[in-house]
Specification:
With about 130 residues, the chain is of the alpha/beta class. The longest helix has 20 residues. The two termini are about 20 Å apart. Helix 2 packs parallel to helix 3. Bound molecules: manganese (II) ion (MN). The site of manganese (II) ion (MN) has 5 residues, from loops.
Length: about 130
Amino acid sequence: MARILVVEDNPGNLKLAMFILESAGHEVVGAEDAATALAIAAESVPDLILMDIQMPGMDGYQALSSLRALEATKSVPVIATTAHAMKGDPEKIQAAGFDDYICKPFRYKDFLSAVASLVEAGERSRDGR
Ligand code: MN
């Protein structure tokens, strides 16, 4: 069980992502824009963040830079979520410093396995294993 922050401007996608994660036993907080997400993350640092790339205003790349610039949130794993992986996107996402990425529409199995592997990696690094 992890504390996960989901950042997603599409209410339907946000609801679905939160439902899938809650069903898997995680504690989930949602934010519909990057500014709200940054405020939540600074206030209470999550174990994992799912970050939409395409959002009005501050996009996922800018939000990731802000998270990485803060001591409290710089090492929180962040998974990018993207509606359509275009050619070159996976490389761009990786170069930006995201830990992984998931394509929308969300598929339960892929979605939960990406989340589980980063949650486990986080637990291992916290335990010093
Ligand atoms: Mn979006």
